[in-house]
Amino acid sequence: MNIIIATVVLSFTLAFVLGVLLGFFKKIFSVPVNEKAEKIREVLPGANCGGCGYPGCDGFATACAAGEAPVDGCTAGGAAVAKKVAAVLGTAINAENKVVVLACRGCYDNAAQRGFYNGVKNCAAAQQAVNGTKMCSYGCIGFGDCVNACTFGALSLEKDGLPHIDYSKCTGCGVCVNTCPRHLLFKIPVSLKGAVARCSNRSENKQSILKNCKGGCIKCGKCERTCEQHAIKVTNGIPVVDYTLCNSCGKCIEGCPTHVLYLIEDIIKTDKQ
Fold first, then answer.
1. How far apart, in whole angstroms, are the C-alpha atoms of residue 36 and residue 250?
2. Rounded Cα gap, residues 134 and 151, in angstroms
3. pLDDT surpassing 80 at residue 198
4. 132 touches 138 (CB < 8 A)
5. % of the chain at pLDDT higher than 70
6. 179 vs 270, which has greater pLDDT?
7. Angle between helices 56-65 and 35-43 in degrees, nearest 10
8. Spatial distance between the Cα atoms of 264 and 194, rounded to a whole number of angstroms
9. Is the pLDDT of residue 82 over 50?
10. CB count, 10 Å around CB of 159?
11. Tens of pLDDT along 86-126?
């Protein structure tokens, strides 16, 4: 009986000592909690997509609380989350949601194939190995690296060989933009209106462009001459639009012989045009 009592007393004594020691070491080695970072983390969507450039939502919240990340850095959350983060930090922000646009029309019907590719089926590998699978060295390679990178299911590789964007799901996080080895995806504000060129071929060789892709810009300059607002200019081989002047009249689109130009507002409605 005495042995049982002694064992119980010893157990409680050891538990008490260990508890005191644990509390002591916890106090010494405790990491100060950043209340702002915790509050920012609470308003983030929790996608951990990496679009902000930080390792997950926790990393962004810590950086944002420290003033090292922009208030609107959570592109997955968009303008709504940016305003909540700004409220936590006690600042004001005029944030706007963004989406991505593909600057290429090099589908199977338009773009000539380089040949049969028997390598690793991803865009980065094909780019490095044989400079892509199509004759146009500027166009979409078509293996869907951007599709695989999208954590929101907003991109899908369709039968035409091009990625298509579901704008009801796109958050404009930019992960696909950074993934594309040819930089064919770019972000725009959802409110932006006006013409945009869906071609990235900067070559000046018109015959080569038409031979390699029926949907490529041939640098004819007709869009410049047609625009009454003088809002469009072919720069470095690509029609570039000044959106402070463009009024979405569509005359440049009607005049483009290879149908390179589209209205942004029409693209965002559906990218299967």
1. 48
2. 27
3. yes
4. no
5. 93
6. 179
7. 130
8. 6
9. yes
10. 7
11. 898 888 888 888 999 999 999 999 999 988 888 999 999 99
Ordered DSSP codes for the chain: -HHHHHHHHHHHHHHHHHHHHHHHHHHHHPPPP-HHHHHHHHHS------TTSSSHHHHHHHHHHTTSS-TT--TTTHHHHHHHHHHHHT-------EEEEE-----TTTBPB-S---S-SSHHHHHHHHS-SBS-TTS---S-HHHHH-TTS-EEE-TTSSEEE-TTT-----HHHHH-TT--EEEEETT--SEEE--------HHHHHHHBTTS-----HHHHH-TT--EEEETTEEEE-TTT-----HHHHH-TT--EEEHHHHHH-S--
Q: Which token pair is 191?
A: 């409110």
Output the pLDDT for position 158: 94
Indicate the average pLDDT of the chain.
Answer: 88
Q: Which of 92, 90, 130 is nearest to 113 (CA)?
A: 130
Question: Could you tell me the two tokens for 92?
Answer: 């004001």
Structure tokens at 265: 């507002």
- Residue for token digits 């850095």? 73
